[in-house]
């Protein structure tokens, strides 16, 4: 009987044993696969050394950050030993003994958390915090905490304790957008790590435990209290004697906040945009975009480019620009001063003729960083400001007429297109010079028609207007009729071809270097001929005549040379003033973000006044 019961029990337990064995085997395989995945992901050779990038003016002075927050990387040798010690005793007293996690601390945390309905205390070691910041989210869930243990243990296998501590000190958050101890030293004390006193080191070491609670600016007293507790711990651990601790507690902590300079946000935002263009050109993204036919493929390339740009900005580069602080301020002030009208916006660009560099740029009234930057993002109809580039210069280049040659200024209809001169006024035969001076429309259309639309548009290819469409090649383009148009920067840049007949894209960035001064990126633009010497001389004469006694005269200044062309679009939706002096080329656009009539301020000539104030 007993044997029968035994066999029966074995038979009944056998399926359960098989089930448990299979389950354990699957769990072990799953666990092994997970551990292998963690091991593959933890690549200690590619731990990001994020640093803040800075944008520098023409003299090498920092005027803006090229990335959010403050991040500076410190080598292990740069970090004082006392700072390492006090950090360990602040965050993880068993750091040098555990294997990535502290079982005792975890048990204490679990017991405490049982009292609450959500996780209050994590019991995280320095290694766990490093793992979380490198590979995981900040969510307070038990699943994330368990995963964190595996990553921490893997870090311990692949890195020494000193390497882990150094990486931690470079990545941990110190409140107020500051990451890493080197950035914290600069941000709170305006000092290098080697210049910190022990009291200051302990004060900074107090922050990461709870960056909000120990924020030095909003909760200074609490941060100071924690700093003093750290000294008490060091005394208990025989790391210093009581007398030294009391002396350090008594040392006055004086904050000297780092001045986060964003003096010229209009220019800084454009410099970041140009950096993306520079990376795209030099790392092959532009070629890939040019070859891509599907929009989905282009979108993927754009995402890769954005990611790459963010990587560069997060690597601590120095973006050297041509910004001239005095000219930038003059440009911004000129625009703000002359646009007191509700809802009326503007943009202005200033380019140095000798270097073909952008030295000043305004993206709108009272521009705030990362807002819509109208200088390069607003694409608008150019009105008559396109005539020098599309009509007169191609016509002169093709036929080399005298400027006294006449053209019919009367009414005109070609294939149901019937343009009119401003105010509907009709003229008889007028000289090229007078037609340009008065910015007459019907002569411009006749000249474009005679030169040939296709031939004239070929000259625009040099300027790479990014929004030109095949459908733009009509006679209406002679008076500024485009599908989209061009940005103030693009149009102003094209006018630099009237400096000497050649064109090279105007750039803000001179070069991009790493912190050691090694050049990483630099434009390799070549100056290309666009207009012959004879055409350039005649175009400069036409522009000068318009500045002296034509539509540009309200912006006239007494300069060795001055040439101006203006533009007004249908229903007075856009005002343009573009031109050059012997030193600079400048362009101004005025309008609403959503086009509407500005007839009421036409006689005030806002675009003229901005241009004149910029170029004084």
Automatic annotation (TrEMBL):
Residue stretches making up the Glycosyl transferase family domain: 69-232
GO molecular function: penicillin binding; peptidoglycan glycosyltransferase activity; serine-type D-Ala-D-Ala carboxypeptidase activity
Keywords for this protein: Carboxypeptidase, Cell membrane, Cell shape, Cell wall biogenesis/degradation, Glycosyltransferase, Hydrolase, Membrane, Multifunctional enzyme, Peptidoglycan synthesis, Protease, Transferase
Taxonomic superkingdom: Bacteria
Keyword Hydrolase appears in the UniProt entry: yes
Record carries keyword Protease: yes
One of the GO BP terms on file: proteolysis
Domain Penicillin-binding protein transpeptidase, chain residue ranges per copy: 346-579
Family annotation (Gene3D superfamilies): Biosynthetic peptidoglycan transglycosylase-like, DD-peptidase/beta-lactamase superfamily
Catalysed reaction, written as an equation: Preferential cleavage: (Ac)2-L-Lys-D-Ala-|-D-Ala. Also transpeptidation of peptidyl-alanyl moieties that are N-acyl substituents of D-alanine; [GlcNAc-(1->4)-Mur2Ac(oyl-L-Ala-gamma-D-Glu-L-Lys-D-Ala-D-Ala)](n)-di-trans,octa-cis-undecaprenyl diphosphate + beta-D-GlcNAc-(1->4)-Mur2Ac(oyl-L-Ala-gamma-D-Glu-L-Lys-D-Ala-D-Ala)-di-trans,octa-cis-undecaprenyl diphosphate = [GlcNAc-(1->4)-Mur2Ac(oyl-L-Ala-gamma-D-Glu-L-Lys-D-Ala-D-Ala)](n+1)-di-trans,octa-cis-undecaprenyl diphosphate + di-trans,octa-cis-undecaprenyl diphosphate + H(+)
Gene Ontology cellular component terms for the protein in this record: outer membrane-bounded periplasmic space; plasma membrane
Family annotation (Pfam families): Transgly, Transpeptidase
Cellular location(s): Cell membrane
InterPro entries named in the record: Beta-lactam/transpept-like, Glyco_trans_51, Glycosyltr_51/Transpeptidase, Lysozyme-like_dom_sf, PBP_transglycosylase, PCN-bd_Tpept
Similarity comment text for this entry: In the C-terminal section; belongs to the transpeptidase family.
Protein name: Penicillin-binding protein 4
């Amino acid at each position: 009987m007993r044997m029968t019961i035994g066999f029966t029990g074995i038979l009944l337990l056998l399926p359960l044993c098989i089930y448990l064995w299979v389950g354990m085997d699957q769990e072990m395989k799953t666990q092994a696969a997970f551990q292998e995945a963690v091991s593959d992901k933890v690549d200690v050779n590619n731990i990001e050394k994020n640093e803040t990038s800075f944008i520098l003016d023409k003299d090498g002075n920092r005027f803006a950050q090229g990335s959010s927050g403050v991040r500076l990387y410190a080598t292990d040798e740069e970090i004082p030993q006392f700072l390492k010690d006090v950090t360990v005793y602040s965050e993880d007293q068993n750091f040098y003994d555990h294997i990535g996690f502290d079982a005792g601390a975890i048990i204490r945390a679990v017991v405490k958390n049982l009292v609450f309905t959500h996780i209050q205390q994590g019991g995280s070691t320095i290694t766990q915090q490093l793992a979380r910041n490198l590979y995981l989210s900040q969510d307070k869930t038990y699943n994330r905490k368990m995963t964190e243990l595996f990553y921490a243990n893997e870090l311990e296998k692949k890195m020494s304790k000193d390497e882990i501590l150094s990486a931690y000190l470079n990545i941990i958050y110190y409140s107020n957008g500051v990451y890493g101890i080197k950035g914290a030293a600069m941000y709170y004390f305006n000092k290098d790590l080697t210049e910190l006193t022990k009291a200051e080191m302990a004060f900074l070491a107090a922050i990461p435990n709870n960056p909000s609670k120990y924020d030095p600016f909003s909760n200074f007293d609490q941060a100071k209290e924690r700093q003093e507790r750290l000294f008490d711990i060091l005394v208990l651990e025989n790391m210093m004697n009581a007398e030294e601790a009391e002396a350090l507690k008594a040392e006055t902590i004086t904050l000297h906040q780092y001045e986060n300079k964003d003096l010229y946000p209009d220019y800084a935002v454009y410099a970041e945009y140009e950096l993306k263009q520079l990376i795209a050109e030099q790392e092959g993204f532009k070629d890939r975009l040019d070859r891509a036919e599907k929009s989905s493929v282009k979108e993927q390339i754009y995402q890769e480019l954005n990611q790459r740009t963010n990587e560069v900005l997060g690597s601590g580069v120095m973006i050297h620009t041509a910004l001239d602080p005095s000219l930038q301020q003059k440009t911004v002030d000129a625009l703000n001063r002359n646009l007191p009208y509700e809802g009326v916006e503007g943009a202005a660009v200033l380019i140095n003729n000798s270097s073909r560099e952008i030295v000043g740029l305004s993206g709108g009234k009272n521009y705030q960083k990362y807002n819509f930057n109208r200088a390069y993002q607003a694409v608008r109809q150019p009105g008559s400001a396109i005539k020098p580039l599309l009509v007169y210069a191609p016509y002169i280049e093709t036929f080399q007429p005298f400027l006294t040659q006449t053209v019919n200024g009367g009414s005109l209809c070609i294939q149901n297109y019937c343009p009119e001169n401003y105010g509907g006024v009709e003229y008889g035969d007028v000289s090229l010079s007078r037609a340009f001076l008065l910015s007459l429309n019907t002569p411009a259309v006749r000249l474009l028609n005679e030169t040939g639309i296709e031939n004239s548009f070929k000259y625009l290819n040099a300027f790479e207007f990014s929004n030109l469409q095949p459908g733009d090649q009509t006679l209406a383009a002679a008076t500024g009729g485009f599908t989209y148009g061009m940005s103030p920067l693009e149009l102003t840049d094209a006018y630099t071809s009237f400096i000497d007949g050649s064109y090279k894209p105007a750039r803000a960035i001179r070069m991009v270097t790493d912190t050691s001064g090694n050049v990483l990126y630099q434009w390799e633009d070549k100056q290309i001929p666009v207009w012959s010497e004879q055409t350039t001389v005649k175009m400069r004469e036409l522009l000068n005549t318009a500045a002296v006694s034509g539509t540009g005269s309200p912006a006239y200044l007494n300069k060795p040379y001055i040439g101006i062309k203006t533009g007004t679009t249908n229903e007075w939706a856009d005002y343009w003033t573009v031109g050059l002096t012997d030193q600079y080329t400048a362009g101004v656009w005025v309008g609403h973000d959503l086009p509407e009539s500005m007839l009421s301020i036409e006689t005030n000539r806002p675009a003229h006044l901005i241009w004149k104030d910029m170029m004084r």
